Target: Carbon monoxide dehydrogenase
Amino acid sequence: MTKKFEGSDQVSLDLLKRMKESEIESAFDRYDLQQPQCGFGQLGLCCRHCQMGPCNVDPFGRGPRRGVCGADANTIAARHYVRIVAAGAAAHSDHGRSVAQLLIAVARGEAPGYRITDTKKLFEVARVFDVSTKDRKIEEIAEEVGEMALAEFGKAYGTQKFATRAPINRQKVWEKLDVTPRAIDREVTESMHRTGMGTDQDYNNLIMQACRTSLADGWGGAMIATELQDILFGTPKPTRGTANLGVIKEDEVNILVHGHEPQMSEMIAVASTDEELLNEAEAVGANGISVAGVCCTANEMLMRHGIPLAGHMKMQEMAIATGAIEIVTVDIQCVMQADVDVSGYYHTKMITTSPKAKITGAEHIEINDENAYEKAKDIVRMAINNYPNRDKSKVFIPKGSKSQLVIGFSHETIKYMLGGKFRASYRPLNDNIMNGRIRGVAGVVGCTSSTVWPDQQPYMELVKQLIANNILVVQTGCAAAECGREGMMVPEFMENAGDGLREVCEAVGMPPVLHAGSCVDNSRILIACSEMVKEGGLGNDISELPVAGACFDWMHEKALTIGHYFVTSGVFTIFGTKTPVAGAPVVDKLLCEGLEDIVGAKWAFEPDVNKMAQLMIDHIEKKRDALGINVKKERKLYDMADRRALEVEGSTVQAGCEPGIAHSHQKKD
Model:
């Protein structure tokens, strides 16, 4: 390792130091060994899409300017970009497909252990899908909703139903550009087709397909996943939880769940409370069974059940390296193959559960809708039986490494907290943005990766700067996990907020940094933006709102897809990395400038966290200026003579009305 073991995240650094001393290779070691990485690949100028390649285009003009087929830098970079977006859309959307299939199985009584939890959300989704609810059983409604959701992936005609939830003006932009997403699978397939040799060779046309494909994820597959998971497992509500490696118990059987689809982790959590299994754990000398999460599975379990979060993606090896994990159970996405090697140094067993994601060296126990609970019990029992094999000399759980946090801020929760049960509304949020207490809203989301060391904490610095400038922050994914374990998601953290934001947080009783869920739950932020437009006073489209999005440390392809569907939805979005099309300045200019004229928003790429924060602040203030809410309006106190002089459409203003505020057609004689 080239870095010294010192810095702000001492918990992670201590674990890495122990791994180094034990000669256990970490992701950070492997990153160092990869240096220098391929410069052509980093610039988006390496094409492997046919057997005449791979082709590299020299951006400096000293080497080849075209691939063998004649593709130039703009075509190669745009194709590369579209394929990233398609892969990310496929990942989140396939997640949504699995949830739709589970909902159908639950409705038919074919998935023991699962149940329909949120019938209110079921009725809301049924309305979007035009599913009749009158005089029908819940199971009948749920089955048809599941079937309608499943049809969104491969229907022959029409566009995504959830796209109708966007503001009408945003829908018109999409229709004009012909980027309203059609069947989800069609968009992914067409993207792969277009980017193959000899097909689409116009970078503008390719980027428009990236827009449509990303929308098929954000307003399609990912939104289906989030909404149907709420129906099945419950819509998150604010609750307290704990995070960081200190949640791992030294005297209990520890099971680590990792991945993204909550089907597996939900059943593991239920099985861990089984009385028979708890007795078996006691019989082998353990004081209980503890379940903790990593990555987005952790976010799912934390916000619905308060099950503790051990860490974000780049901490998975460190969690195993505590030496106190009996079993690591994984499903899909963001799982490192090297986890098997790290587990092998300890007594830890690694279990894969999805037929889509097997790992050489790990044991496979497939969990499906029909056998989930029984297989979960088998896995918990394996963990119990492995507990006596733990080598106590290898156990190292950092002391004091546990933080409190408040999670579960779905867009329904935000409406409820602001307006109450009978008048749930975004009105107080919009009002406080208009009066300036809150300058705007920022979504700080995304991945963590081994390209950024633990002693560098850009997400925390970015969030601190935003809330200090009275910008409310909403987080998802591993970015949320990183800030949560640093104690930034409790009401007490409002001390770091500006006066206006702090005043609102104190009144409502919420943190200035809101945990909204896993990476698939970015769809909650899309719906929240639509609700803000619907509420009125902040423009007629998402592109007019004083909002911005950021991901400092993107790692998985789906992160770029998320960023692109936010841009195409009208949200200025900034990533803390170099642009993925750096070798094609024309395409880069389209993404970072030209798209604003086309879809109303644009990209930015800025590795400096201070500059990133300022870009977001400046953008929000620019949107406030455009809305006219930065201009202080003169207030006039009307005496009785003034009031008598006012007329509203020919009739005298009634006592009690505020002239100039309550009516829009007022005039003086």
In short: The chain has four domains: 65-233, 245-394, 404-627, 634-669. The longest helix spans residues 73-107. Residues 1-7, 648-669 have pLDDT under 50 and may be disordered.
